Amino acid sequence: MAAYTELLKRPVSPTGVWSWLTTVDHKRIGLLYGVTALTMFFIGGIEAVIMRLQLASSDQTLVSPEVYNQLFTMHGTTMIFMVIMPMGAAFFNYLIPLMIGARDVAFPRLNAFSFWMFLFGTLLMHASFLTMSAPAMGWFAYTPLTSLEFSPTSGVDYWVLGLQVLGIASMAAAFNFVVTIINLRAPGMTLMRMPVFAWMTLIISFLLIFAFPVITIALTLLQFDRWVGTNFYNTAAGADPLLWQHLFWVFGHPEVYILILPAMGIVSDVLPTFTRKPLFGYPAVVFAGVTIAFMGFGVWSHHMFTTGMGAWANGVFSFATMLIALPTGIKVFNWLGTLWGGAIQFNTPLLFSIGFITMFTLGGLSGVMHAIVPVDTQQQDTYFIVAHFHYVLFGGSLFGLMAGIYYWFPKMTGRMLNEGLGKLNFWLMLIGFNMTFFPMHIVGVLGMPRRIYTYGADQGWDNMNMFMTIGSFVIVVSFLVFMVNVIRSLRSGEPAGDNPWGAATLEWSISSPPPHYNFIEIPTITSRYPLWEKDHSVGAAQAHGHDDDSHAVHMPDPSYWPLVLSAGITMLAGGLLIWKWHQILGFTIISVFGLLALYATYRWAFEPVNEPNHEEPHQ
Amino acid sequence: MAGLLLLLAAALSACTNPQTTFSPKSDTAQSIQTLYLLVIVMASIVMVGVFGVLGFALFRFRDRPGRVASQTHGNTKLEIIWTLLPVAILVIIGAPALIAVAGSAKAPDEDALHINVVGHQWWFEVQYPGMGPEDPNNPGERLPLITANEVHLPIGRQIYVTLESVDVIHSFWIPQLIGKTDMIPGTVNELQTFTPQEVGAFYGQCAEFCGTAHAQMRFRAVVESLGDFNEWAEALQTAPADPASELAAAGQTLFLAKGCVACHTIYGMPGAAGKLGPDLTLLGDRRTIGAGIVDNTDENLQQWIRDLQQMKPGTLHMPSFGTLPVENPQHMSDAEIRAVSAFLRGMTLE
Ligand SMILES: [Cu+2]
Ligand SMILES: [Cu+2]
């Protein structure tokens, strides 16, 4: 028995590379997500800058059409699946247990597994650059362009398998957070006392659970078509090319809310802190979020107004899309209501939140424009659309996430970011963003289609494109400022203390950075803003929490198996790719790693705890 | 601001931006434009409202010594108001929009001109059903009249366009005349009908990403008087006159000898009945070559035949004849290319 447990020992080192590879601590996993997402943001940004250089004026030949098509495909795929989604995940991971008063998520090893699947999916998809065959069909990959006939290289294969792997990561995370939020709230933390960010996380998790299976199926059918010659999307065999579009957008539109709701949650938590008053209309904001999510499943065909669906379908989806503006408007108005009557402190997180509200409002308004079908027939697939979704995804999601970074960085690192650099970062980003993306509305109106690697001088789009390219460099500078700020603060930033902003929610009641067990004693919650209550009882309970006390708290042990299992599963996908090129080798890889994945699952299931005699955590 | 800038763009656009969506030259494009402006105005009002309140709040409620935030939690009356207000705005834009959608389903008029456009990677085939020469296999029936990359339209007559594709999804769009509709393989889509109201050559472009050369899949819509239109349609089904010059005559021979005819049709020219590439009948009369990407000049056409991969990277099927190895029988010297160009450009209406 002793030998048995010895053999199956779990990793123990508290620091070093192995401690990160085997960590199940939600805070460390959150940081891993964040750092990976920022790295991918850098890569996606380089792709964008190359595209802007190519388009700076007419008839340029900086990159070939093939390369350009790869750039926009990977830029879109990267920014959506490997930057904004995981940035949201970084915050869920880091903050949710802290916000609801838990010591970790419900399934810590599954959480680690999510991260490793995400990382490996990212690597798998980017491996396509190494074989010079990055996907080049656009991030929504319309059939039949993605069939073997029209895309014979392995780009589509990388993309399909990469997304499948990323999908597993998202599904695992979604289930984890639903269970965590439903089950692990501290005593007294009723649903309606949760920070709005926790609410949005819960909603997003449900969105993921319902939306991702749809894309998984769509991708699986495509996989069958490309690997074994089925005809799910083969028009020559009578398939309807619109099948893919419906499946894709049934996933794709909820995905839009998966991308924006984290930012909405962040802003709803940042505003009260810097206005010194509670969120205006908390129930309305929460309910609007639920409504948006629910309605988000009923508007997908607004991406397909020009496919000839007919007047009925166009009318219904147009109507539904206009309706979704209502809950969105409610959120915006309640944020205004929160600012109204406050004592507004213009710190960087607040500035980014204001940036979010304004830019997102613009993006929302242009969104209503393309809900109007006849107008959309002029806007669809033009730069007007590109402008719109950058206003919601960059001006919206990313500004919101930046607000979150400036807001919680002190909690995560124990050090403040510099306010002066933060403000410089904000203004440069706001100006650069608008220089780059506002003129896209205009060139869109002037007829410039999206996804073109070149245009003629006769079109008269040159000046505006040059202006936009210059704007994109202002954005680049703003991110350099951000990087400088982060690096400086990590080295020599001002110490943050527990609650530098005087915020009201639970995560600010513990030290910065929090101890690995989070709360020495699980707090009891009596209101939505516990730290603003007169007696500060919650903060007091944590005050004597030193690391010495950690032996009293039993935390989940680190584990190798999430890492091994996700490597095994990813290599199954890798084996499928290789199978196309060399069947025996591919088959061998699939078998070996399939067995490895099986073995890892088994070891995971029967993993013992390190200190079996230790008392259970007191809840 | 957004609205104003867009209007400004509109004012500037007509002459300097031939592909603008803001200079409608057909009844349908005009009605889209009206709706578009309404939406822009309403959106601008909302924007000014939101930004105004926001700006005021940020200034009025900024933190300063002695300022205490009012601890309000919400206000049900306000919540109702700011749900209903947007409803009113949505009704104002939504009602005409939905009426327009319903109207778009109207069947074409009896005497509408029917055109069928077929998308290919990366060019447009244009067919006028029942307007071509008599069908030899089916006396009494007329074949479609066929051309490529240029859609001729008589002014003042309703146009009814059906859309198809032989490969991937493309999208047919003439911003000044009509919004886009996708060309989907295996399906026949209908473009909303429209009546051109001004003579001119209008820009069109494929709007759905369709592969490597998507950016260079363009075309022109030529709106002309009924007389000109009929003359053009007639000429398209008349055997071409003998080449006017020796050079052009040599070009005609080469056109057969180099295998151009395997892919290209020239009406009335024996042996030239290929279908893989665009129909080249009356090429001299076309405004552009390469699917709308360059003007139809002698120089451009020679360059196209010599090295089209350089002009339009990714082009399918057609070889870059000037770059083929010399020992390849299809290789063409500059002199030969000049001859073929003279022949093709010599086929004009006169
Ligand atoms: Cu959508
Ligand atoms: Cu195209």
Measured distance between first and last alpha carbons of chain A: 30 Å
Residue fraction in strands of chain A: under 5%
CATH architecture grouping of the domain at 113-236 in chain B: Sandwich
Low confidence ranges of chain B = none
Structure description:
In chain A, helix 4 (65-100) packs across helix 8 (242-275), helix 4 (65-100) packs parallel to helix 14 (383-413) and helix 5 runs parallel beside helix 18 (561-581). The longest helix of chain A has 36 residues, at 65-100. With 619 residues, chain A is an all-alpha fold. Chain A contains 19 helices and no strands. Chain A has helices at residues 2-7, 17-21, 26-55, 65-100, 108-130, 155-183, 196-228, 242-275, 282-295, 311-323, 325-339, 348-371, 373-379, 383-413, 419-445, 462-492, 537-543, 561-581, 583-605. Chain B has 350 residues and is of the alpha+beta class. Among the domains of chain B are: 113-236, Sandwich (Immunoglobulin-like); 246-345, Cupredoxins -  blue copper proteins (Immunoglobulin-like, Sandwich). The mean pLDDT of chain B is 92. At the A-B interface, helix 4, helix 9, helix 10, helix 11 and helix 12 of A face helix 1, helix 2, helix 3, strand 7 and strand 8 of B. The complex binds copper (II) ion (2 copies). One copper (II) ion (CU) is lined by residues 253, 256, 299, 302-303 of chain A.
Fill in the keyword field for this structure.
heterodimer, A: 619 residues, mainly alpha, Cytochrome C Oxidase, Chain A, 19 helices, 0% strand, B: 350 residues, Immunoglobulin-like, three-stranded mixed β-sheet, elongated, binds copper (II) ion
